[in-house]
Amino acid sequence: MNAPSTSPLNPPTWSAVLREHVALVSALEAAGPTLDAIVDAIVTCLRAGRCVYILGNGGSAADAQHIAAELLGRFKAERSALPALALTTDSSTLTAIANDLGYERVFSRQLEGLLRPGDVVWALSTSGNSPNVIAAAELVRSRGNTLIGFTGRAGGRLAPFCTHAFRAPHTSSDRIQECHQLAYHYICERAEAAFRDSPPS
Questions:
Q1: 56 and 123 Cβ atoms separated by less than 8 Å
Q2: Is the backbone of residue 110 left (phi > 0), alpha (psi -120 to 50) or beta?
Q3: Is the C or the N end of the chain the one with fewer CB within 10 Å?
């Protein structure tokens, strides 16, 4: 689905935004099998004592940090900490890599040093075309690790690299991010439930 025709000089009404959001969320029902496969991949990774690395730019960087906080801290239940790290939070590392090696390598360079067999990488990009996300995806594929992708409807260049790709059925970044948040909260709750009585090794 597409956003109604609007412009900065003619923004939508609140009622129009709500109607679009409700219609968009209703369209996500078919994504259940994809999201459950992502849950399984994350639980398998965590049960093996491995780590989930999460990355993205801008609003997707904030989402990456949100996901890591839900897993490493807690979502709703008391349980052991689940190893998850957002690659968007270390300003010294990010600026050093961007300055010395180029911004396109801010995620792939971190993964060069951190990624181990069995780890999962979770990449968020509303366009699916961010160069630094694609560079990370290429490295993940070269290492044979599982790559989870959260994108918009088209999937962009990211989707073909993904082991599991969740595509929000929209082209506008705000609506895409609304879908992403609903989906990753579902994933975090399901993953958390898997460890209520059986902490990761």
A1: yes
A2: alpha
A3: C
Domain of residue 78: give its range: 35-193
Q: 101: which DSSP letter?
A: T
- Determine the longest span between alpha carbons in the chain, in angstroms: 55
**Axis crossing angle, helix 32-47 with helix 173-193, rounded to the nearest 10:** 50
Provide the domain count of the chain: 1
Q: What is the mean pLDDT of residues 74-94?
A: 96
Contact 134, 147 (CB under 8 A): no
**What's the rounded Cα separation, in Å, for the pair 149 and 141?**
12
N-terminal to C-terminal alpha carbon distance within the chain = 43
In a domain, 21, yes or no: no
* pTM exceeds 0.90, yes or no: yes
> How many helices (H) and strands (E) would you count in the chain?
7, 5
**What is residue 97's predicted lDDT score, i.e. its pLDDT?**
98
146: nearest Cα among 28, 29, 43: 43
pLDDT per residue over 10-36, tens digit each? 899 999 999 999 999 999 999 999 999
